[in-house]
Amino acid sequence: MFKNRTIRLTLLILIVAMALLAGCSSKGPNGNSSSTNENGKKTATPDLELIYATAKDINDMNPHLYTGSMPAQGIVYESLLENTEDGIKPLLAESWEISEDGKIYTFHLRKNVTFHDGAPFNAEAVKKNIDAVQNNASKHAWIKLSTKLLETKVIDEHTVQLILSEPYYPTLLELSMTRPYVFLSPNDFINGETKDGVNGYNGTGPYQLTEHKTDQYATFVANEHYWNGVPRIHKIMAKVLPAGETTFLALQKGEVNFVFTDDRGTDSIDVEAMNTLADSGKYQIVRSAPMNTKIIVANSSRTDSPAADKAVREAIWHSIDRETISRELFNGKELPAEALFSSNVNYADIDLEKRAYDLDTAKKLLDEAGWTLQTGDEIRKKNGNALIMGLYYDISSFSQKSEAELLQNTLKKIGIQLELVGEESTSIANRRATGEYDLLFNQTWGLAYDPQSTIASFTSEAAYYHATSGIAKADALYKKIEEVMISSDEATRELHYKDILTIVHDEAIFIPITNGNVTIVAPTSLKDISFKQTQFELPFERMNFE
User: Fold this and answer.
1) Which residues of 463-483 are buried (b: 16+ CB within 10 A; e: fewer)?
2) Integer Cα distance of 323 and 332 in angstroms
């Protein structure tokens, strides 16, 4: 009898111990634990960490300005709406209505949402954020909604109205962008504003910024109170490393375990390094569908530059060997681009003149325009001015540097001297805004935003005004852009876009190279890797380790 009692007691102790262990944690397929909170809800797994390499610091995370890293901002802050493959969908707004005249947008907000600091997300918070953006209007002139929004009105705790001066069809799309119409805790505002800085970076998104050491790293931890479910990956770290061999070696050693094409289109490692990592069996390469068009922007307004001459721009277009660039630099993963937008972009599937790689045609265009090459000379001249231009590229981008060197060698064959200048992306953006350039690398906004966002920037001094303002049909172009943005008739809108795209194509001010995509190098154990409709964000919250 004593023996039976001992056995029963031992079994009881084992059962209780197993029950306690089961209540504390459970192991995943890879031995990683996931836990539950006091409410029985699944929480983030503490020992799962993703460390991505970035050539640039995340900088100021103020979502109402433009120096911060967009991939980082994309996991901290959220907008009212989300742009998806199936169109505009609810995010912080559950539903909305548009008035018959197209001037009033009424949004019904999601309830029980809080900012990272615990402050409630409600109509007052929406109004405060949008008003802060509008109070810094000159900074946001590139986004046309900012010029048409008259008032943000609180209807009740979870209902807000936006009142516009006139109908504007891209309103919902521009409200879904990574910035500036996203939401920061009102507690982080300084004197009711954000234009002169903020006190913190508390959004409503799936991750919260918990630590930032400038030019070293930034740490983001899963938001345990996220309204859409706690992310499976507990911690994400952005580690600043020089692009190239340093990042490649860090991946091999496991010091970082994730790289991707960033919001500037910068690649931290080249294709050969990516393939080497994939061949090791430890990493996988995942690429998105074509997202954007990589281009060379020509400054048509700088009268002392050869780039102001249409014939020179056309000659450059004919001198780019896109097939070789696609094959040699991208292993065929980025396809040659023939126009500003690929045909899968809305309104862009139109017939435009094809300009093939043809150096004889390029020479003929230059000859006819008066850019002649005298015997013994290597550089063409016109009226005593040499055909010399500067081409600015992102110093952190291997592909841009390689493309620039290839084009430099090709143009030398037809009498054009190209001086290559590698600069930080912020410096190039400043040149684009001030017009202090002949040629520079850039990219279209991308599948989620185009054609309207890139086209709207044609009139913005912060973007492409200096590229467009010097062409013969500049006034007609700007009028068409104004008309298309307020058009409510689909057929009329199609005609306007066709005219706009034809004008800039004929003027050769945006010289296409390849159709770019987002490329990720990640551990083979990382699952559910996907993409958004934009190259500026990644859905880290959907990913998980096997």
Assistant:
1) bbbbbbbbbebbeebbebbee
2) 9
> Where does the pLDDT of residue 430 fall: very low under 50, low under 70, confident under 90, or very high at 90 and above?
very high
16 CB-near residues (< 8 Å, 6+ apart):
none
Rounded CA gap, 189 and 468, in Å? Answer: 37
Q: Which of 135-144, 393-402, 461-470 has the lowest mean pLDDT?
A: 135-144
Mean pLDDT of 134-156: 92
CA torsion angle for 140, 143, 144, 150 (degrees, to 10)?
-50
Using pLDDT thresholds of 50, 70 and 90, give the confidence band for residue 486: confident
Q: How confident is the model over 12-63, as pLDDT tens digits? A: 444 444 433 344 333 332 233 344 444 444 455 545 799 999 999 999 999 9
Give residue 264's pLDDT: 55
pLDDT higher than 50, residue 4 = no
pLDDT value of position 266: 63
Instruction: Give which of 505, 510, 508, 513 is closest to 335, Cα–Cα.
Output: 513
Residues 239/222, Cβ–Cβ less than 8 Å: no
**pLDDT score at 265:** 52
Percent of the chain with pLDDT over 90: 77
Q: Give which of 121, 520, 114, 150 is closest to 333, Cα–Cα.
A: 520
Sign of the torsion angle spanned by Cα atoms 145, 165, 99, 169: negative
Name 154's bridge partners.
160
Nearest to 266 by CA among 286, 285, 247: 247
| DSSP H helical ranges for 96-139 | 123-134
Place of tokens 């009329």: 492
DSSP notation for 355-418: --S-HHHHHHHHHHTT-B--TT-SS-EETTEE-EEEEEEETT-HHHHHHHHHHHHHHHTTT-EE
**139 residue type, one letter:** K
Q: State whether the Cα torsion 49-55-59-63 is positive or negative.
A: negative
For the stretch 481-488, contacts whose Cβ atoms lie closer than 8 Å and that sit 24 or more positions apart, written own/partner, are 481/455, 481/456, 484/452, 484/455, 485/144, 485/168, 485/169, 485/170, 485/452, 485/456, 486/166, 486/167, 486/168, 486/169, 487/169, 488/102, 488/167, 488/169
Alpha carbon distance 436, 297 (integer Å)? 12
The secondary structure of 331-347 as a DSSP string is: TTSSEE--SSS-TTSTT
How far apart CA 304 and CA 380 sit, in angstroms, is: 16
Cα 522 from Cα 226, distance rounded (Å): 25
**CA-based nearest residue to 179, from 66, 35, 326:** 66
Burial 13-36 (b: 16+ CB within 10 A, else e): eeeeeeeeeeeeeeeeeeebebee
DSSP string, 136-203: TGGGGTTSTHHHHEEEEEEEETTEEEEEESS--TTHHHHHTSSSSS----GGG-BTTBSTT--S----
pTM equals 0.77
